[in-house]
Amino acid sequence: MMIDEMWLQKNKLKKLLSQEVFFLDLVKEDAVSLRLRKELIEWLGLTVSTDRAQATIVLVVNPELSVNAEAYEIQENLIKGASSSGLLYGFYNFLRLKLRGKKLEESSEPSQALRMINHWDQVDGTIERGYAGESIFFGTPGSNDNTDTGSFALREIKGDIFRNDFTRLEMYGRFLASIGINAISLNNVNVRGLGTNLIVSPYIEKVGEIARLFSGFGIKTFLSINWAAPRLIGGLRTSDPLDEAVCAWWKKVIGHIYDVVPDFGGFVVKADSEGEPGPYQYGRNHADGANMLAESFAPHGGLVIWRTFVYNSQTDWRNRKNDRAKAAYENFMALDGDFADNVILQIKFGPIDFGVREPLMPLFGALKKTNQMMEFQVTAEYLGHQIDLNYVLPQWLEIIHTDNYGLAKDTVKENSPLAANSGFVAIGNVGMDENWCGNKLAQANFYGFGRMCWNNDLTAAEILREWLDMTFVDVDERAKKTIYELLMTSNQTYEAYTTPLAIGNMIVPHYHYGPSINGYEYDRWGSYHFADRNGLGVDRTMVTGTGYSGLYAPELAEIYEDINKTPDELILFFHFVNYDHLLHNGKTLIQTIYDLHFEGYNKVLEFQKSWQALEGKIDEITFRNVSQRLELQVQNAKNWRDQINTYFYRMSGVEDKYGRKIFN
Amino acid sequence: MMIDEMWLQKNKLKKLLSQEVFFLDLVKEDAVSLRLRKELIEWLGLTVSTDRAQATIVLVVNPELSVNAEAYEIQENLIKGASSSGLLYGFYNFLRLKLRGKKLEESSEPSQALRMINHWDQVDGTIERGYAGESIFFGTPGSNDNTDTGSFALREIKGDIFRNDFTRLEMYGRFLASIGINAISLNNVNVRGLGTNLIVSPYIEKVGEIARLFSGFGIKTFLSINWAAPRLIGGLRTSDPLDEAVCAWWKKVIGHIYDVVPDFGGFVVKADSEGEPGPYQYGRNHADGANMLAESFAPHGGLVIWRTFVYNSQTDWRNRKNDRAKAAYENFMALDGDFADNVILQIKFGPIDFGVREPLMPLFGALKKTNQMMEFQVTAEYLGHQIDLNYVLPQWLEIIHTDNYGLAKDTVKENSPLAANSGFVAIGNVGMDENWCGNKLAQANFYGFGRMCWNNDLTAAEILREWLDMTFVDVDERAKKTIYELLMTSNQTYEAYTTPLAIGNMIVPHYHYGPSINGYEYDRWGSYHFADRNGLGVDRTMVTGTGYSGLYAPELAEIYEDINKTPDELILFFHFVNYDHLLHNGKTLIQTIYDLHFEGYNKVLEFQKSWQALEGKIDEITFRNVSQRLELQVQNAKNWRDQINTYFYRMSGVEDKYGRKIFN
Questions:
Q1: Is B315 left (phi over 0), alpha (psi -120 to 50) or beta?
Q2: What is the mean pLDDT of residues B28-43?
Q3: H-type alpha helices, A530-619
Q4: A639: which chain B residues are within 8 Å (Cβ-Cβ)?
Q5: What ipTM was estimated for this complex?
Q6: Are both A373 and A459 inside the same structural domain?
Q7: Are A82 and A123 within one domain?
Q8: Are A180 and A450 in contact (CB under 8 A)?
Q9: In a domain, B657, yes or no
Q10: What pLDDT is recorded for position A411?
Q11: Are residues B125 and B262 in the same domain?
């Protein structure tokens, strides 16, 4: 098995640089500078001289370059970093420019201070919402069969829970650093079984080994915790955050972690959500819970990353005033200003759950006194499981540039009391599959997330061009253009044949792939479409609906409140709309539904045709990998087209204007 | 743990008979007469004399009593059997009369020659569609946690696959014989893993031990086989029934079985269905497959029981002419007369799958030259999982008295060339739960199935009275009346709040409990309701539909073909009916749907109230067991009521005539 090198192809880089002589001009040696030497000497096999005069390329650490220690500057044969981390980023970006044949001139510092990947890896080697094989951190050597099936019970574990594949982990650290990621959490936020024990011996020692590897790449390591750990593994009778014994237990545990992992990042916490334990069960609020942990972290410089994905997963569909979209706002808005400085709220970009289309979560812009991170999902839970093509950057960039309360892309930073404790975070999409992401083209989202964090001003097109140039180095421009066009339209295509107009969760429950129009309609998870013979959609207006639209700044609220002002893409998220209602596109709702599903499916057929034409023009492995995925995507798109069209035809009784085949 | 004795309560029987002296007048000693002695002496601890003069009760085998060896006659102090089996049945029926305080006079012979229970038990101890704990045959001693979840992968097995609980098995044999069951298959018809190996050493030896125990109770033991066994465990490259090596392999395996189990019953075969292998994959038909096996069984007197539950589980919902209801007929009707004498077709009572309401399978009456058995399901896969109360005898008896081609209850016998090779069979409902059936009241279905097989003329009410009198011996009449009324209306109540009017499979996929209106609507299993804004139902008429109604005898076909003649209970099975169509009940379809769901739920509340009034009047264990189940049933009925009413309100837009609450 040849593990895919993604966009960092050693032999190609080596060839470009083999004539060069490097010289490192450092202020001091540290883990990162040592990694930089390793990258040059071990990884690429290049020449590093101790004599500056012989050098053709000089790498310099210069703290005066910027107050931002991660900043770098590239000027032809000179790479500068404000710190060794800055220099490492400068080096990888130098490689990018070199591979793309671009002018070696760039000056840059990251838009977001924290650029984090959350792993939902479990100690049995499975990954919740993983579509690319088993965990690279945990699991049995050689095993790669267990992927997400929507059932999250742990398998039986025998022996060591760690996979111990440090070759993989080193490659992974390199990918992460090359796109600017500087924080990672290793384990699923739903912490089960031995996952609870990762924070104590003998497990924390192995976490320490992994953390040391990542430190060299400028990456801090975090762990997700189970809120009930004091009870589950501490032998206490309570996990009440205001209980003295509980505080003392956490203090001891955290102190021990720093003995073993001196640069440990902190904890990621999912509490009081979807059945997980939390402070609510002791009558405490989220600030009580987070601040208690934060106090023990403060002396060590550690962080408490507290997720706001908190909602009552026992919603009764009978009550249409219940609105899961309001849950995070209602749980956290009143606590603005109550959290300690080393607490960060991790807030999903939208109010529901990484959906095909959601508006911006209204907490962004509204929260003014709380450190915050915006959460994305690189793994394609709702976006096609890395089977269907879906380059998601267009969606993410639209979200981060949505303006609520006069702020746009800098919302999270400017509204965080400590800018250093703010940023972007995403659930990762890699696993033990040969190409890391199941679908080779899904690497673009992993790459894109990092690049978006680093530079909020890049466009989806620019990021994709970068990725394509680096990934398909020797491929001719026409072929690259084909892939470019396919990916650039993939997100809107997926939306078209699945759930356009922000309809919501019409997916197979738990599994979240393929259509199940009423899969969640009468269930307890709080995501409904309310389709009837007249129309569909969720009335979230203030006047007649759940009042959700009123959570936005007045300028946005006014738009979302008004069915005639709400953009088509979001209309069913905010309004119950009759089938014969005319959208901004000049067509009725029902005709729009039909059109998008017919067009979406046809577009996938075009994808397939375009891809077939690439045979022989790109490497065989990638060609076959994506061909197989497209085969499945065609089936999926067909199922969506036919089930959605038939369902709404049966409901509405309205014929397709163009007489296309709708099964009755 | 005290294992429930069901209707055979030792201490009560002992008390009634302790003054008696028994004498056995046998023609010869055999396994069954030995069991009879054991029942008297070991089980009940009664006095058996070798001196007829001392006897107060005499048990006689008299072959002249009847040509039917299973016949018995009870005359006060004399119990006669036409064979030792007949005498054993006479003895248990004597106990029944005694326990009920009835006159000791009865002459009887069985209506059905074969009276069989199929177990869907798996070698890992789980039971497919089991709702009463793990298998009594297989599994780890002490384990009883694994019940049906709709996922049928085998668990890992360590060590012996057999449970070896012969105390349980002896009790079970007694229950079976007491209600006249004379055949049993031990393992699931979907034969997986080591289940395939049960027919060979070292497993067949343990099957032999079980079979010997059951022989004493007059019960023959069968095994389900995997059609691909020659390939899977025989080392052959094919399972083609016309391949000589395949025939030779089966002959050798069957010969060996009879060396170990001299009175082995035969095989039960599910072939070419729901993904299981079968003769179709070699271009052979079902007669080829069955007759090949039958040839090897013939010298040993063994049977091949071949299931007709064969359908294409890859149905495309887009084609409304596809009709799973026709599948068995289409696969088997043309083969009538082609099967060997020792082959029996096992045919489900209805054309789909043990549903809440189905018409009679049209093969009954139409098949004239093929031995046949009618198949029922005691385990409540579609009828409430033994959580919801559902005394199913009213439904079964209606089915067996349905007249197709001039025959009614004797169809299966009269149309079978060898009457001895015909009968009724059911999937059992017992497991390792303390009360065997999960719900104490579900014992009535197990009891009732046996009684219905024995005597087709018993009514549901008579059977229930028997069971109640024997089960609640010391309970006062008023309390028994309460339970009687509750059970007698339970089947129609379940139908009312779930899927009345033969709507079909609106259930949670795989799991088959609780509502999921579109759970199967766009799936590959071929059971659809086609609801739209105008109405719902499946058009199975000859003129405009799938043509299924034409498979019946002209008198029945004429009724089912005509929407105005089809009984309300079956109307949506045969017709697409508009919401405003007036049913025979004088109400519109939509109002009938609303009424039944409101009334059904209210009835369950009444059940609960009636049951609560029994506290202190019946034993505490039963009281609590059923109370807990009723709690769950109320929730289930509420979910059904609200989801069905809301769904069809959203679809039809028609308000409830009485303004009851329908959530919108």
A1: beta
A2: 95
A3: 554-561, 571-574, 589-612
A4: 522
A5: 0.89
A6: yes
A7: no
A8: yes
A9: no
A10: 83
A11: yes
Instruction: Write down the residue that tokens 């799936």 correspond to.
Output: B523
A517-542 residues labelled b (16+ CB within 10 A) or e (exposed): bbbbbbbebbbbbbbbbebbbbbbbe
Given the DSSP bridges, would you call strands B105-108 and B114-118 parallel, antiparallel or unpaired? unpaired
pTM score, whole prediction:
0.93
**B376's tokens:** 């029922």
Assigned token pair, B198: 């049960």
Helices (H), A392-526: 393-400, 411-414, 443-454, 460-471, 477-488, 490-497
CA angle A296, A298, A299 (to 5 degrees): 90
Place of tokens 């267990």: A146
The count of structural domains within chain A is 3
Buried b (16+ CB within 10 A) or exposed e, B310-339: bbbeebebeebeebbbbbbbebbbebbebb
We report the CATH number of the domain holding residue B168 as: 3.20.20.80
Confidence band, pLDDT 50/70/90 cuts, at residue B142: confident
* Structural domain ending residue among the three candidates B67, B89, B108: B108
- Structural domain of residue A466, as residue ranges? 114-140+161-309+323-471
Describe the strand order of the beta sheet including A57-61 as a list of residue ranges: A47-48, A21-25, A57-61, A78-81, A72-75, A105-108
> What confidence score (pLDDT) does residue A276 get?
81
Within a domain: B483: no
Q: Which residue of A has its CA nearest to B522?
A: A643
Q: Which residue of B has its CA nearest to A318?
A: B663
The amino acid sitting at B558 is E
> Does residue A286 sit in the same domain as residue A259?
yes
3-state secondary structure of B298: helix
| B319 Cα to chain A: minimum distance (Å) | 8
A58 and A80 co-located in one domain: yes
Contact B653 A531 (CB under 8 A): no
- Pairwise CB contact (< 8 Å): B533 & A533: yes
CATH number at A76 reads 3.30.379.10
| pLDDT score of B151 more than 70 | no
- Residue ranges of chain A whose pLDDT lies below 50: none
SS3 of B436, please?
A: coil
Computed on alpha carbons and rounded to an integer, the radius of gyration of chain B in Å comes to 25
Same-domain check for residues A277 and A134:
yes
Hey, are the CB atoms on B653 and A532 less than 8 Å from each other?
Answer: yes
Rounded-to-integer distance, Cα A395 and Cα B448, Å: 62
* Strands B577-578 and B303-307, sheet pairing: unpaired
- Does residue A31 form part of some domain? yes
Q: Which of A146, A320, A650, A654 to mutate to probe the B interface, most B CBs <10 Å?
A: A650
DSSP letter at A442?
G
- Residue B160 tokens, joined: 């012996």
* Nearest CB partner across the interface for A651, out of B320, B517, B533: B533
pLDDT tier, B109 (very low <50, low <70, confident <90, very high otherwise): very high
Q: CA-to-CA distance for B83 and B31, rounded, in angstroms?
A: 12
The predicted-structure confidence for B367-425, as pLDDT tens digits, reads as follows 999 999 999 999 999 999 999 999 999 999 999 999 999 866 678 999 999 999 999 99
Residues A102 and A26 in one domain: yes
Phi and psi at residue B558, to the nearest 5°:
-60, -40
Q: Which residues pair with A205 in a beta bridge?
A: none
Retrieve residue B555's tokens.
């008198």
Residue the block writes with tokens 């106090």: A295
Domain with residue B509: its CATH number is 3.90.1330.10
Phi, psi of A507 (to 5 degrees): -120, 160
Torsion of CA A497, A498, A503, A504, to 10 degrees: -170
Do residue B122 and residue B80 come from a single domain? no
Asked if residue A150 belongs to a domain, the reply is no
Average confidence score pLDDT of chain B: 96
